[in-house]
Amino acid sequence: MKIINNIANKIGVDKILHFLVGALIVAQFEIFEWYWVLIAIGIVAALSVTKEFLDSKFDWKDIIAAMCGAFTQLFILILKMWFFSDVPYGGLS
User: Fold this and answer.
1) Cα angle vertex 27, ends 36, 62, to 5°?
2) Average pLDDT, rounded, for the chain
3) What is the pTM (predicted TM-score) of this model?
4) Which end of the chain is more exposed for a tag (fewer CB within 10 A), N or C?
5) Band (93; pLDDT cuts 50, 70, 90)
6) Sign of the C-alpha dihedral, residues 48, 50, 53, 55?
7) How many angstroms separate the first and last alpha carbons of the chain?
8) pLDDT the model gives residue 80
9) Contact (Cβ atoms closer than 8 angstroms) between residue 20 and residue 2
């Protein structure tokens, strides 16, 4: 638990939450055709920039954290398609 607390203190809970929300938004679109995942990445980018403009302090690191979460989820989807290509799920069969 101490290791997790050290990581959270170094990175910041805010950045971890941005990462998780970016990944969660992209994960919601995995059940549709593959191009919807790319649209979801664009949605994450647009929402992240809009949120930062509405904040009192603009922080590029928050946008980068959200996009890292989105691209991590894309990478996971690519791995699932590669390793489990014979198992149909969503529109990615």
Assistant:
1) 100
2) 86
3) 0.81
4) N
5) very low
6) negative
7) 40
8) 84
9) no
Query: What residue has token string 């989105």?
Result: 70
pLDDT-derived band at 91, boundaries 50, 70, 90: low
Q: Which of 70, 77, 73 is nearest to 34 (CA)?
A: 77
Reduced to 3 states, what is the DSSP secondary structure of residue 87? coil
pLDDT, tens only, 21-72? 999 999 998 878 778 889 999 999 999 999 999 988 888 999 999 999 999 9
d(CA 55, CA 60): 12
What residue type is 20 in one-letter code?
L
Q: In the 3-class helix/strand/coil scheme, how is 37-68 assigned residue by residue? A: HHHHHHHHHHHHHHHHHHCCCCCHHHHHHHHH
pLDDT at 11: 81
